[in-house]
């Protein structure tokens, strides 16, 4: 089967919120030699975007949204080890404290970013989701991080990114860390407004940006 047909099947399986179908499509694509990263970027994520649109238009509701997210995460259990196999060994490039901000439970983008950081030679402390501002600041100080990287998917939780930068300033720590932000709800303008050191639209760009910031 051509790669494009695999991508269509992968996308549709997420839209159908059918975990068995997702796993079958992932395994079929891998068997045909499609790369794990392409399976995610060109198959599964476009499906998740359609799910987001359907949710916004109220064609589907929270249970379906959750079902699609679970199916995506089941695929990642197969795909993560494949991506890690191609990962970088050797000297570490820098230390990253990563998390999704307070009040926000979205983890998929953050987890992809973590995976790419680790396979690109960064050390990552993943604080998870719903991360309080002081958890970011305290962990960054504790491990002497180079970068604090914060994800936000909701317009209502964006403010958590600004709060971390303000807390760093209050503690006289702002110059000790680079701060980058991302996630579906963020923009370059928001990053500039809150005085972040960088913003990226995708996990790939985030890794390139981080490598520049630590060099
Ligand atoms: C899956 C999903 C869920 C799942 C999340 C499961 C999980 N474990 O993550 C569940 C079902 C839990 C969920 C819940 C909710 N969701 Co939701 N969800 C989505 C959905 C469909 C996909 C999000 C996603 O994972 N995208 C794929 C990833 C890869 O994209 P990403 O996170 O943006 O990450 C990429 C880049 O942004 C970047 N990146 C990410 N983080 C970072 C960090 C840094 C530092 C950098 C540089 C880059 C970077 O790299 C990533 C890879 O390239 C989106 C729609 C959409 N298209 O985004 C809605 C969406 C985000 N959700 C939405 C809503 C409203 C909700 C709920 C409030 C629904 C409800 N009524 O309860 C709750 C909120 C719960 C909470 N408190 O957080 C809205 C948000 C609207 C808004 N603007 O505020 C959206 C946009 C749907 C919509 N169109 O209405 N959701």
Structural write-up:
The protein is α/β, with parallel strands linked by helices and 215 residues long. The protein has two domains: 3-85, Methyltransferase, Methionine Synthase (B12-binding Domains), Chain A, domain 1 (Orthogonal Bundle), CATH 1.10.1240; 94-214, Rossmann fold. The protein has helices spanning 3-15, 19-31, 36-56, 62-85, 108-119, 133-143, 159-170, 188-194, 203-214, and strands at residues 94-100, 122-126, 147-151, 178-182, 198-199. A five-stranded parallel beta sheet has the order 2-1-3-4-5, sandwiched between helices. 38% of the residues are buried. The mean pLDDT is 96. The structure holds cobalamin (B12).
Structure, briefly:
This protein has helices spanning 3-15, 19-31, 36-56, 62-85, 108-119, 133-143, 159-170, 188-194, 203-214, and strands at residues 94-100, 122-126, 147-151, 178-182, 198-199.
Spell out the blueprint of helices and strands.
Blueprint: H1 3-15, H2 19-31, H3 36-56, H4 62-85, E1 94-100, H5 108-119, E2 122-126, H6 133-143, E3 147-151, H7 159-170, E4 178-182, H8 188-194, E5 198-199, H9 203-214
Parallel strand pairs: 1-2, 1-3, 3-4, 4-5
Helix pairs in contact: 1-2, 1-3, 2-4, 3-4, 4-5, 5-9, 6-7
This protein binds cobalamin.
């Amino acid at each position: 089967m051509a790669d494009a047909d695999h991508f269509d099947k992968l996308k549709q399986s997420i839209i159908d919120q059918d975990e068995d179908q997702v796993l079958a499509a992932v395994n079929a694509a891998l068997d045909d030699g499609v790369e794990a990263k392409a399976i995610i970027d060109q198959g599964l994520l476009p499906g998740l975007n359609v799910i987001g649109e359907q949710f916004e238009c109220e064609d589907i509701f929270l249970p379906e949204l959750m079902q699609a997210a679970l199916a995506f995460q089941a695929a990642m259990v197969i795909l993560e080890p494949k991506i890690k196999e191609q990962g970088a060994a050797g000297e570490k490039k820098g230390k990253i404290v990563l998390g999704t901000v307070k009040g926000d439970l979205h983890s998929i983008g953050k987890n992809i970013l973590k995976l790419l950081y680790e396979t690109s030679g960064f050390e990552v402390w993943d604080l998870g989701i719903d991360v309080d501002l002081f958890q970011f600041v305290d962990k960054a100080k504790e491990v002497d991080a180079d970068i604090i990287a914060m994800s936000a998917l909701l317009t209502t939780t964006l403010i958590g990114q600004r709060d971390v930068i303000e807390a760093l300033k209050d503690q006289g720590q702002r110059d000790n860390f680079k701060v980058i932000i991302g996630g579906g709800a963020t923009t370059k303008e928001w990053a500039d407004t809150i005085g972040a050191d960088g913003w990226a639209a995708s996990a790939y760009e985030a890794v390139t940006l981080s490598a520049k910031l630590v060099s």
